[in-house]
Amino acid sequence: MKKYFLHSLGCKVNSYENASIGTILSSSGYCETKREEEADVIVLNTCSVTGKADQKSRQHISSYRRGNPKAAIVVMGCYSQTHAEESLALGADIVLGSSSRGQIPAYLDSFFRTGEKIVDVKRSVRKESYEELGANAFCENARAQQANIRQLVGHDLKESIREYDTRHVTLEPTFFSEVLGIQGRMDFLHTSRGEAVIIEQKSGKGDFVPQSAPGYDPDVPKPQEKHLVQLILYRALLVYEFQMHSASLRHILLLYSRYKRGLVSVGQMPALMLRAIRMRNLLAWCDIHHAHEGYRFLSTLTPDSLNRKHTGGKLWTMYPRPELERLLMPIHTATPLERAYYLRFMQFLAKEKLLAKVGSKTKEDSGFAAKWLSSLEEKRTAGSIYEGLALKDFQMEDHAVTRLTACLPKQAGTDSTNFRRGDIVLLYPYKEGTEPRACAQMVCRASIEDITTGGIRLALRNGQTDPKVFARGAGVCWAIEHDQFDSSSDTLVSGLHRFLSAPSGRRALLLSQREPLTDAGVTLKGDYGHFNSLVLRARQAQELFLIIGPPGTGKTSFGML
Questions:
Q1: Long-range own/partner contacts, residues 526-530 (CB < 8 A, 24 or more apart)
Q2: Inter-axis angle of helices 336-358 and 487-501, to 10 degrees?
Q3: Terminal CA-to-CA distance of the chain, rounded, Å?
Q4: The model's pTM
C-alpha cells in the first residue's frame, strides 16, 4: 500500500484542506505517514501571501525533492496557482490549483502509470470575483489584514487590557464540555490572575450596515449573528464547564481583520445563548432521528419549502434558489432504485456517525462520548488511554512547538493499548494521583508519528507558540486518548450525492443494472503462465475488474502487479 505525507504552509484554510485531502487519499487506498522520507506521495499545500511565504514554498519543494527523489510530489495552494512552471522546475511532479484536490488520486494513478508530469491550475474562485480582485489585489488585501492584526493586537488590545502580556497567551486551545455537549477551539486565550480574555479572529466582512444608518463608520464592523453565537458559546463553555465566574471573563472580543477598528467587544446575550443551545439540541435530535428513521423527507424538499424566511426578489431568484435546485435535482430525478440505494446508505452513514459519537452497548469504551462516560478502569481495559506520561524533545518550527515526545512511565509493562501510528489523538495534562479527564482543561490535538519503547512521538495539529503550555511543573502528568473528526462522514455523504449526480450509465454500472464494458479485441503482449486468463480479462476490461479470492492466493502479488 502506497504511503502519503501531508504538509501545510500558511493559513488555517490550508490545514483544514489537508484533512479533506487525507480523507480522499485514504479512501483511495493510500495510508498516511508522518515521515516524508518513507512516503510514496508528498502533498504540499502552499501559501503565497507574502514574499517570505513564496520563499518557504520554494524551499519545501526543493527540500522534499532532495530528501525523497522517488516520491511523487504534489504541489497545490496559492503558490502553485501563480507559480506552476516554477513549481515544476523545483521538482514537483503534479501541480494543482485549489479546485482540483478531489482529482489527486486520478492524477497520481496517471503519473505512476506514465511518469508524465501534470499541471492543472484553474481559477479557484468565481470568474467575476477573480477578475474584480485579481491576484495582486488579493495579496494586497491579505497584507492589509496582516497590518490591521498587528495594530489591533499590538496596540489597541494593550490599550483595552491593561495587564495584557504575550507570555500569558495561548493560541488555538481546544476545550470539550460534557455539560453543554459542545466543543470549541478558540483562536486566542489570555489568562492571568484567574481572569480570561477570549478573541476570535474573522477575515471576512461584518454584517451589512447601510451607509445612511446613524453613526455609520466603514472602519467599524457590525458583528454577524453567527460570530456572536460562537463567542457566547465559548463564554458558556468556560462558565458552565470550568466554573469560571462571569466577572472573570473580562473581555470577549471579535477581531475583524479587514477593518482598521475591527476589535469589537461582545457582551452577555442570554436570549441568543438560549437560541443557540436549543439549536444544538435540535441538531443532536436530528442525528438520532435520521439514524433510526432515515432521510425519506429529502425526496419532498423544494427550494420554496427551505425558504423559511420567505425571502423574495432578485437576490433569492439569482443566487439561493438556483443553487438549491441544483442540489435537490439529482434526488428528484433519480430512478426508484437509485433513490432507494441513496436513502438507505444515507441512513447507514447516519447510524455509523451516531455510533462514533455515543458508542455501542455491545462494545466497551466505544464512541467519542466515552471520554467522559467511561471510567479510567474501563479505558485501561479497552486499551484506549495512555496515562502517567512526561513530555520531552520539543521540536520548534516558526517559533511554535510542532512535535514532542510523550514518555511512558518507568513502571509501565507491556504496551496493551490499541493506538497505532497515524492515529489522531488528544493530549492533555492532569494532576498526579487524580483521574485523567479530557473535559477538565485545555487539550491539544495531535497525530501519532511513532510508538517506541521510549515513548510516543506526536505531531501537533496546530503549533503551540507558548511552550509554557507544556511546562506544568512537578506533580503533573499527561494522558493521550483517541480523537475524532466529523469531516470523514461529511466526505462520505458528499460521495453519495456525487453518485446520484453521475451520468446514468455510471449509476447503472454501480448498481449492477448493466454489464461492465469490455473490448474483446485486446490481446496479451506476453506469457503470464496460469494467470494468462486473468490478465487477458483484466486488460479487456474497460471500466472495472474485480479480483475476488481468499487471503494468500496471490491477488496482490500476482493479480494486481
A1: none
A2: 180
A3: 12
A4: 0.69
What is the rounded (10 degree) CA torsion for 555, 557, 559, 561?
140
CA 108, chain centre distance (Å) = 22
Length of the chain: 561
Whether the CB-CB separation of 428 and 478 falls below 8 Å is answered with yes
Identify residue 202 by its one-letter amino acid code: K
Determine phi and psi for 556, rounding to 5 degrees: -85, -50
Residue 103 neighbours by CB distance under 10 Å:
15
Closest CA to 321 of 215, 183, 313: 313
Contact call for residues 49 and 78 (beta carbons, < 8 A): yes
Decide: 479 and 436 in contact? Cβ < 8 Å. Answer: yes
With b meaning 16 or more CB within 10 Å and e meaning fewer, what string describes 478-493? Answer: bbbbbbeeeebbebbe
Residue 541 DSSP symbol: B
Which residues have CB under 8 Å from 143's CB, separation 6+?
Answer: 49, 50
> Which residue in this structure is represented by grid cell 495552494?
77
Which DSSP symbol is given to 154? I
**Cα-based distances in Å from 375 to 21, 292, 362, 364:** 35, 28, 17, 11
Regions of the chain short of the pLDDT cut 50 = 123-133
| Residue 242 CB contacts under 8 Å (≥ 6 apart), including other chains | 175, 441
Dist CA 261 CA 249 (whole Å):
22
Q: Give tens-digit pLDDT for 247-289.
A: 888 889 999 999 999 999 999 999 999 999 999 999 999 999 9
Q: Where are the alpha helices (DSSP H) in 29-77?
A: 51-67
Task: Give the DSSP H or E segment for 255.
Answer: strand 249-256
In order of start, what are the domains of the chain with their CATH numbers?
A: 3-120 (3.40.50.2300), 133-273 (no CATH), 277-348 (no CATH), 370-482 (2.40.30.270), 516-561 (no CATH)
Cell matching residue 448: 501519532
Residue matched to cell numbers 507491556: 414
Reading phi first (left if > 0) and then psi (alpha if -120 to 50, else beta), residue 200 is in: beta
Q: Quote the CA–CA distance of 488 and 187 in Å, as a whole number.
A: 23
CA 248 to chain centre: 32
438 within 8 A of 171, measured Cβ to Cβ: no
Encode pLDDT of 451-483 as tens digits: 998 899 999 988 887 777 888 778 999 999 999
Inter-residue contact 4 to 42 (CB < 8 Å): yes
List of residues 6+ apart from 234 with CB closer than 8 A: 184, 186, 198, 200, 252
